[in-house]
Design goal:
elongated, 161 residues, single chain
Length: 161
């Protein structure tokens, strides 16, 4: 017997109301935060200057929110967009609590809506709300994302090869 591993979901595999718990989680290190902040040319010292951050209301460096957004999105790829043709939009991004070096974060996504594409008969549009949570369960982020996904039998992974 021969099998090929498959990842992600086709349009038909999504159901409104389904919740996907994305794993594994990720513990954010000081190096992650510093490198990402400098790589993206963010010069705010709250992210990489411990003495500056000690004088802030947080008392310590805060993880760059674009890094946490990137990690949470990355966590969701295997469940939401691994087979996607593309992201169609991001809406209602909310940053509700700070994340600090050493925090472990997790994510989950709820399917909010799905519809067949009007212009692409072999594809569908899926909208999810993704929530980032710390290990203690507290929410630090949420956003909605809409992706274009193939119907079963029409994705790149469905091609022989």
């Amino acid at each position: 017997m021969r099998t090929r591993a498959t990842h992600g979901r086709a349009y038909e595999d999504f159901s409104v109301g389904d919740i996907y718990e994305h794993r594994p989680g990720r513990t954010i290190s000081e190096a992650d935060n510093t490198w990402f902040t400098l790589l993206t040319m963010n010069q705010h010292p709250l992210h990489f200057d411990a003495e500056y951050a000690a004088k802030s209301e947080f008392g310590r460096p805060v993880v760059n929110s674009c890094l946490t957004l990137s990690i949470v999105v990355g966590m969701s790829v295997s469940d939401i967009s691994y087979r996607a043709i593309g992201n169609l939009g991001w809406n209602d991004i909310r940053l509700t609590a700070p994340v600090f070096n050493g925090d472990t974060i997790y994510a989950e996504s709820e399917v909010l809506a799905k519809r067949e594409s009007a212009s692409r008969p072999t594809q569908g549009v899926v909208t999810v709300r993704t929530t980032g949570k710390k290990a203690d369960g507290s929410v630090f982020m949420s956003f909605e994302r809409t992706v274009l996904v193939p119907k079963r039998g029409h994705g790149i992974d469905d091609q022989a090869g």
